[in-house]
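Each record in this resource describes a single protein on a pair of labelled lines. With that in mind, the following record should read easily:

===
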Amino acid sequence: MMIEHTPAAIAIFDRNMRYLMTNQRWLEDYGLGDRVLTGLSHYEVFPEIGDDWKAIHQDCLQGATHTCDEAIFPRANGRTDWIRWDVRPWQEPDGTIGGLIMFTEVLTARKQTEQALEAANQALIRANAALAAENQQRNAELKNFFSLSADMLCVVGFDGYFKRINPRFESVVGYTEAELLSMPFLSFVHPADQDAMISTAAALAQGSQVAAFENRYRCKDGSYRWLSWTSASDVNSQVIYAIARDVTAQKEADLAFKKQAKLLDQVQGAVVATDRAGTITYWSKGAERLYGYATEDAIGQHIRILYPQHLTAFLEESIIPPLQKSGFAEIETVNLSRSGHEIPVSLSLSLEKDVDDNTIGMIAYIVDIRDRKQAQLALEKERRFLKALLDNLSDGIVACDEKGMLTLFNKATRDFHGLPHAPLPPEQWSDHFDLYRADGQTPMNMDEIPLFRAFRGEIVRNSEMVIAPKVGQVRNLLASGQAFFNESGEKLGAVVAMRDISDRKRAEEQIINQAQREKLFNQLTNQIRTSLDFESILNTIVREIQAYLKVDRCHFAWYVESDSGAYWEVISEVQAAGLPSFIGQYPVEVFGPLSEVMLNRQMLCINDSAKVEDVKVRQFLQDLGNQSMLVLPVQANFSRFGLIACIHHQAVRPWTEDELELLEAVVAQLAIALNQAELYRQTVNKAAELEQAMVELQRTQMQMVQAEKMSSLGQLVAGIAHEINNPVNFIYGNLNHAKEYTDDLLEVIRLYQAALPEPDAAFAAAIADFELEFLSEDLPKLLNSMKVGADRIRSIVSSLRTFSRMDEAEMKAADIHDGLDSTLMILQNRLKAHSHRPEIQVIKDYGTLPRVECYPGQLNQVFMNILSNGIDALEDACDRGQIDQPKLRIRTHLGPNCTVVIAIADNGLGMPEKIRQRVFDPFFTTKPVGKGTGMGLSISYQIIVDRHGGTLTCTSQAKQGTEFVISIPCCQG
């Protein structure tokens, strides 16, 4: 908004002194904050205004103008401000005074500066005249003045150095007092301002009393600040007293405003701004050139001066309302120059908003379009001639411009499309006008339309398409066209000519239809004979019939009789997009009278449901929305009856004799094919049953072999454990006696040594040869070591006996943890560290479990299979360098419904989902040949699920490890 960039505070009032508009400066200068003044009385806002001001306002409302460079303005809070003000009337479009415009600028700060400067000068004069005893008091007062001043104060000597500066000076430029006093003041001035500064300083040194100027001062951070100076010199004291104020922000705002105004003056068109009342507030150089008004003549005038008298209503009714509604408007109209000439112009209008989004005026960008209007008249004459020429052609002509927008439909083209001969609105020219491909069914995409192909640069030759207008006949057209260019090679657009070939196409279609029927029959017959799949045959027939007849729906249904009643079962269907599917079962009574007709097992041909003689059937068909219907019975040799139904909903669709003849032949072939498919299905089912029996036989055989192997292994393990256990028990039982005997003998030797501390030479030599002292120390250790070894052998034998469970073939209560520990004991050698990997760490997280009714030997077999597979997985991961520390984790806890849960997990590489899904399949293995049979986990699954009524699950993710979870009930039966 223009008034927001002015340095003055501005307010606009109506005749009753109510606020119409203010700028932000007004609110700031008078301490009004964000208060909304619009509609308030000036005297309500400032009740302290005296009668002298009110008299000035009334005088201005009579046409006078009052200004004052300096005036005292008392405020309600007791504060007094100095202001410069200007009050003048503003006029309505008819010339009457509509109110006042008030411009004010608060000068209090400047006055304070001047008064402060004057006080300083007086203080200096008094100081020179005062006694030396008063000098200290004067310096103290001056120091307080310097310290407390909000302005920058300094004393500069004629030698070019600062003599004194106040704290405000330091805070603005960022230098300390010492830094400022140590350098010539000219070194802080911007190089471009130094010459002027030297001249001003010289004038002050020559006795010039006061100088006001502006320059840029360098700050400590390298930036420059604009300072406004008021300086006075004391020639006798050889010093200059100066007051400065930082005006950088004001300078930047002025620069931005000037830059904006300069840019607006450089645009080719005119830029005009008004306030809400329509008074011109900005007038660019382009506006001066276009209208002939100088800026000073246009500012303050109403925008109505630019419009002829007969367009005043147009301005108020057709331009202002849409602009106020949308905030933007573009329109072509006629303006009036200062000389009275009418100027065709193009207007781009936008509302001007303040920071609170309130409308404060309008900005218009105006372009002279006189040359364009003259060219348009010439083009219009040429266009009428060309239109008359094109409308007399029998071929359709359509064209687009360089932007691809359709610009021409001749009379023949309109006839093709069923369009009126009146001019079309431009927005309709972008439609496709019901264009289809040569098949007459598939709508053309935009990039298939001949005109747009030509527009893209393609030379179109004899491109066939179909026009199917909503009003008029369907036509087959042959289109040719290409883009056209001017003499400079610039594309101007594209044109396409279309010739009606409908008669020729109808003759061709008759020949093609006959060939298609024969081809379809041969194709279906071949597909039926070469396929034995029941579902595939039906889907093929239904799909091909629907595509050939182009009906909305085609389906096949069986007639089924059951104990609960007869029903139709639709098992194959093809329907048009948007139609619901009929796949499913429907009681016969749902189709009412139509079922009775269809159960006659004769072809039902209904061209128009509205003409069916049977009232009930007619009403039922109309309720279903079926306008045309064709039903063909299909009788199979395996005592099943079905039908093929072809239904059209959108319009009446008569069935031709050729179509009926073809479909009857197809249905006859379908019946044969269905019989063949049924026989094939029965054969396949029988083969599948035999194959399943073979798989079950192989599985049973493998289980028997595995069971026999486990039984033999159990017997072997039990036998070995028994044979080892006997001598171990003998050794273990005698070790205690041997230790007692040894201790006794050693005690006797000790007593002999005590009784004969100095044995004879032969006895001493024997003691030395036998190393009696070492033997006395080592023999007990040797016996203890033998006992530890015997304990280890007994533990291994116990684990072997627990694992074999040869005496527990029947179900009995067992300790699950004993079975797990015995299995781990047997696998101890595989768990130990090897050259290629570290020891496999086994983490036991056992819960408190009751004894479980189970087959202990079989459960031990399951534990062995799962743990062995886990060890295999960990060894593979270590071989590949994928893990550093292999781990097996065994968790047990009570599950819901009195179940025991055993989870065995490894941190190996895991397995892909497709492998995880098959881990329990018989004979499935990922191990090399000879490493596994693929039966371990399958048998484990049957032991847990079939023998114990539990569950066995596997969860795994690649690179995340694998976990098997066993859950079995605590009690069986």
Observations:
- The chain has a mean pLDDT of 82.
- The two ends are 92 Å apart (CA to CA).
- The first helix runs from residue 24 to 29.
- Residues 845 and 891 are 5 Å apart (CA to CA).
